[in-house]
Amino acid sequence: MVESTVFQHLETTLQEFLMPLGFEVWPFKVGWYNAVLHSTFYLPYPEDTLAFIVLSAPQMFEKAFKPFLQKKLFKNVKDPIDECVSHYFTVLKQNLKDLNVDIIYDHELQPNRKPKVLVQTAAHVAGAAYYYQRKDVKNDPWGEKKIYGVCIHPRYGGWFAMRGVLIFPDILVPSLQQKDPVDCLSSDNKIIQVLENFNFHWQDWTYRDIIDVEERYSEEQKKYFSTPPKERLPLLEQMVDLRVPFLLKIMTSK
After folding, report:
1. β-strands 23-29, 49-56: how paired?
2. Cα separations in angstroms, 143 against 132, 191, 199, 203
3. Fewest CB within 10 A of the end CB: N or C in the chain?
């Protein structure tokens, strides 16, 4: 009962803070994640440790990113979206007060340059989005080609992103039940199609519409993400008044 009450209160707290900003939170146990990966990618916590994968839905751009820009909350600009996510996660951590929480962002790397967390795997084991991979295809057409997997959300298709993982080392949830992600694609051909589009035609956005979706990125958001990072400053200036000298660093980042 204590475990259930603590978990429910924490999940509600995270949802109340993040959902109005256009994020989703999905719980999982570290053991579920580690069980499907090579040991080099393990998260170093007991298997019953509680964690959450945080996704950004299409509305995050309007509800979190643009207000973040308008408040000029940048500190050390590298990637504006990453800065935005980091800001809200930091505020969330401060609001949690006495709770111990470790944050791993989707873009963080280990010293060996491997990702600190495989967010697509985390999304899959949490039941948030189905991670379609080459191994899911019965009749593999690609031969020696390298094929990367892609997550598809049951409501947003490919119009979303995984932003990071929140881990609570002091909270164990042995009774938490795992939920399978929704398998949105009904055939081998559909899985081949989404992997083809993602790997070889990702610029045209078509892989994101592999299913009927409730919401897509706005045209403004699509334009922002399809523009090379070094050329995004004029777009940011169009959105809000960003005549701040240190934002010029965007022009030389990435």
Report:
1. antiparallel
2. 18, 16, 14, 23
3. N
For the chain, the structural domain boundaries read 2-252
pTM over 0.85: yes
In the Cβ-directed half-sphere of 183, how many Cα atoms lie within 13 Å?
8
Phi-psi region of 134 (alpha: psi -120 to 50; beta: other; left: phi over 0): alpha
The two tokens of residue 102 are 């470790």
- Pick from 56, 58, 33: which is nearest to 46 by CA? 33
One-letter identity of residue 44: P
pLDDT in tens, 21-73: 999 999 999 999 999 999 999 999 999 999 999 999 999 999 999 999 888 65
Closest by alpha carbon to 169, among 9, 50, 28, 81?
50
Distance CA 129, CA 6 (A): 25
